[in-house]
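help with this record:
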Amino acid sequence: MSDVKKDRFTPGPWFYENGFVFSGCDKIGDAVASIGNSMFRKKDEDVANMRLIAQAPEMYALLAEIDGLPIEGLSGSMKDAVDWVNFKGRVNNVLKKARGEV
């Protein structure tokens, strides 16, 4: 059995419309999230929140790609290498949080 934890969240792409975030490429997708209470809706903030949430799968995929890049063979200064290792550590921590591992 593999040690790799399978992602348990709804795969992307996601899109937002009318206070909901949906999965899939069309309006037939499943609702992934809803934003705010319609009685207390802050429209500009809600739209910004929906836009951010809808990008979560793409951001996760990009972070996973960065996390998979090798550390070995880095060129440049030692400071650049240390910065890259620290950055990758931060990326890895965000991915673990998204997977529920921390």
Helices lie at 43-54, 56-67, 78-98. The mean pLDDT is 76.
